[in-house]
Amino acid sequence: MNQKRDYYEILGIARAASPEDIKKAYRRLAHRHHPDKNPGDRSAEERFKEISEAYEILGNPEKRQAYDQFGTAGPGRGFEGFGGFESGLGSIFDDIFEGFFGGRTDRSGRGAQRGADLRYNMEIRFEEAALGVEKEIIVPRLETCHVCRGSGARAGSQPVVCRACRGTGQLRFSQGFLTVSQTCGQCRGEGRVVDHPCPNCKGLGQVKAERTLTVKIPAGVETGTRLKLAGEGEAGVRGGPPGDLYVVITVQEHPIFARHGDDLTCEVPISFSQAALGAQIEIPTISGRATLKVPPGSQTGTEFRMKGKGFPNLRGYGRGDLIARIFVEVPAHLTAKQRDLLEQYARLENGAGSPLVQGFWEKVKALFD
Predict the structure, then answer these.
(1) What is the DSSP pairing of strand 178-183 with strand 257-260?
(2) What is the helix (H) or strand (E) element at residue 350, kind and residue range?
(3) Does residue 169 contact residue 184 with C-beta atoms inside 8 Å?
(4) pTM
(5) Roughly how many angstroms between the first and final C-alpha of the chain, as a whole number?
(6) pLDDT tens digit string along 61-83?
(7) Are strands 245-251 and 118-124 parallel, antiparallel or unpaired?
(8) C-alpha distances in angstroms, 246 versus 111, 121, 148?
(9) Does residue 75 sit in helix, strand or coil?
(10) What's the CA gap between 320 and 310, in Å, rounded?
(11) Hey, what CATH class is 258-368 in?
(12) pLDDT digits (tens, 9 = 90+) for 9-42
């Protein structure tokens, strides 16, 4: 019996690798060596089985612990022959490569299979997220070949039952008292072969295509929102339904507004005189300008809430508010006349009208007197 390679070496990882590192290594290698990617390549098929066997052990905490301790799946149990491993290969592969949003692929290969789900990342402007918008996108995907209608066979011919596996899609081998099943390399588990392939799709039954789709983006979306376009994924196989397309939204940041749920905040600068005397000022909103009344004596950090001026709720529950937070701008440069007037004001002020200043120094006096 030949000595097996170390499973960590097979996956190209350190013995201290985390479960996530193990999964990433397996995904990368299995994708590269999968038989569907390398039709007719026996070495790739053997490499794929070796990679999958390593992941079955190292991806299972209990089996990994036993392997690390004993070099096998457990005391007195080796991996040669691995019994039912081949029958579990499909479930391992599905666990790693299951659809983007949780769907699974039927690995039997003989019945109708649902098409793969697709993801499209879309970036939109802040205003488009607030008001809603329609966008056209171009989606590359696999579609059913219109020439052979998905059969993969040239006109006037039909796929025939695979002579190697007799239509089962599986080859069975006996190893002592064990029976091992293996996907048929001749038909790749399909159970049938195309002797005369369709010239348009080269016998695959599907062709690459690009489709222009219109996506309606509702008002109120935020970064991470997923929009589902049912049936706009890749075509199914052997009459299976198509997958879905998921448009994942990213909203650009805004130079003025910040979003907090359905509410918006905005920092609004005002002058010293406006804060002291009060004023009516114009402030921006997501849909235009609005007038805000600032009362006399307003301080930096004072917030004013404007009802219904925020983002619309995505589920239709009204709109959020706009919170305008003012800050008083101290002039950096003064004309001679402005300086003279402020100096006159300072002489007249003498603490009057400055309760915060007076209160602060009264506390200081109480501490040290």
Answers:
(1) unpaired
(2) none
(3) yes
(4) 0.59
(5) 94
(6) 878 877 777 665 443 333 333 33
(7) parallel
(8) 25, 8, 29
(9) coil
(10) 4
(11) mainly beta
(12) 999 999 888 988 998 898 889 888 887 778 778 8
List the Cα angle 132/133/135 in 5-degree steps.
150
Query: Can you give the C-alpha Rg of the chain in angstroms?
Result: 34
Residue-range domain boundaries for the chain: 1-97, 258-368
Contacting residues for 68 by C-beta, under 8 A, at least 6 apart:
15
Structure-derived torsion over alpha carbons of residues 157, 158, 164, 166, reported in degrees to the nearest 10: -140
Alpha helices in the chain, H assignment, sequence order: 7-11, 19-33, 42-58, 61-70, 85-97, 126-131, 272-277, 336-349, 355-368
CB 298 within 8 A of CB 326: yes
- Residue type at position 74: G
Beta bridge partners of 327: 269
Q: Which CATH architecture describes the domain 1-97?
A: Orthogonal Bundle (1.10)
321: its two tokens: 């508010």
Q: How far apart are CA 128 and CA 309, in angstroms?
A: 15
Residue type, 6: D
Higher pLDDT, 87 or 119: 119
